[in-house]
Write a structure and sequence with these properties.
By secondary structure, this protein is of the alpha/beta class. It has 2 domains: 4-144 and 315-345, Alpha-Beta Complex (Quinone Oxidoreductase, Chain A, domain 1), CATH 3.90.180; 150-285, Rossmann fold (3-Layer(aba) Sandwich), CATH 3.40.50.720. Helices cover 30% and strands 25% of the residues. The chain has helices at 42-48, 95-98, 139-142, 145-157, 173-184, 197-205, 216-226, 242-251, 274-278, 297-307, 309-313, 325-333, 335-338; strands at residues 4-10, 16-22, 30-39, 62-70, 82-85, 88-89, 109-110, 122-126, 130-132, 165-169, 189-193, 210-212, 233-236, 257-260, 282-285, 291-292, 295-296, 316-320, 342-345. Helix 4 (145-157) packs across helix 5 and helix 4 crosses helix 10. The chain is globular. The two termini are 17 Å apart.
């Protein structure tokens, strides 16, 4: 049983360091994972740049690995099992947890914010947070379950159906996952806006009919040709800039449903909400994954990965060892030059 583990830690804006940390034995209801893959997320980059807080824990919440030890009371999980991690820690007793919406738990913790995350050789996590990977899913693809679950949650919030034409704003990781989620949930037509050619190509691989302009007037003209009357659903995956939300409400069709899920890195000022009223739009804030009824977003994401593992494998453009974590973050930060889609650290 390892007592020491190498981990990447933030060391001020723009700086990462490798340090030795203590990994305790798993306690009751916990499991210890050997991390095999951890994706670099946009939120990790915000933390690196100092735009978000840098807690004293290893970052990395897109995690897959193998179980190396289990704590007391853990059943059904054997040593060596291949798992991915839903990085929430929650009470399981409050009204939000009991309704399945544990993302809103007042006691909610999160790997990387309140405990060590996956840029580490070993990871301690509650047993309820691990999900078994299908045999045909690699660890790198398994790490995509987390961002895909974010997209699945948004698509389920707005109740994407086979009757819907869907527009995804943005073709970063979450935008690409929205394309995959909308297709997996049966949307009849899916379009995406993309700034870069390599992102547009990836969106087409995942099932988008076409990549459209990011400029509102040109986008509006393109939508008039492909989705007359506008999209039934808009999944906004750009961020908190006023332009993205304004664009969403302007191009959505009458009675459209909009999920706002882009990362919040600043205030959203100067937005004209008149189209929301005149078109009777429904706006949904989509923070993260949880559960609707008896079905968890993570489980649906894993089903989607298992149904097309080779397709998702094509999104993994860069792999690095933990010792190269600084280079991994640099590549993820400079996507224009690196043409990175998903950067994965494989400790």
């Amino acid at each position: 049983m390892p007592r020491q583990s190498v981990a990447a830690l933030f060391d001020g804006p723009g700086r990462l360091k490798l340090s030795e940390i203590q990994i305790p034995d798993p306690g009751p209801g916990e499991v210890l994972l050997q991390v095999m893959a951890c994706g670099v997320c946009g939120s990790d980059l915000h933390q690196l740049e100092g735009r978000w807080e840098q807690p004293p824990f290893a970052p990395g919440h897109e995690v897959a690995g193998t179980i190396t030890a289990v704590g007391a009371g853990v059943t059904g999980l054997e040593i060596g099992a291949r798992m991915c991690v839903e990085p929430f820690i929650y009470c399981g007793r409050c009204r939000y947890c009991l309704s399945g919406r544990y993302f809103q738990c007042p006691q909610m913790g999160f790997l990387t914010l309140t405990a060590h995350g996956g840029f580490c050789r070993y990871l301690l996590t509650p047993a309820y947070s691990v999900y078994r990977l299908s045999d045909n899913v690699s660890f790198e693809v398994g790490a995509l379950a987390e961002p895909l679950a974010v997209a699945v949650h948004a698509a389920r919030l707005v109740a994407v159906t086979a009757a819907d034409g869907v527009l995804v704003l943005g073709a970063g990781t979450i935008g690409l996952m929205c394309v995959a989620a909308a297709r997996h949930l049966g949307a009849r037509r899916v379009f995406v806006t993309a700034r870069h050619a390599h992102q547009a190509e990836a969106a087409l691989i995942l099932g988008a009919e076409a990549a459209l302009s990011t400029e509102t007037e040109q986008l509006r003209a393109q939508l008039q040709r492909v989705l007359p009357g506008g999209p039934d659903v808009v999944l906004e995956a750009v961020g908190s800039q006023a332009r993205a939300l304004q664009q969403a409400v302007e191009v959505a069709g009458k009675l459209g449903r909009i999920a706002l899920m882009g990362g919040n890195t600043g205030p959203m000022n100067g937005i004209d909400f008149a189209p929301v009223i005149s078109k009777e739009l429904s706006l949904y804030g989509s923070g993260c994954y949880s559960q609707f009824g008896t079905s968890r977003d993570f489980s649906i994401a894993l089903d989607a990965l298992a149904a097309a593992p080779d397709t998702f494998e094509r999104l993994i453009t860069h792999r690095f060892d933990l010792a190269q974590v600084r280079e991994a973050f640099a590549v993820a930060l400079d996507k224009n030059r690196s043409r990175a889609l998903k950067v994965v650290v494989c400790p």
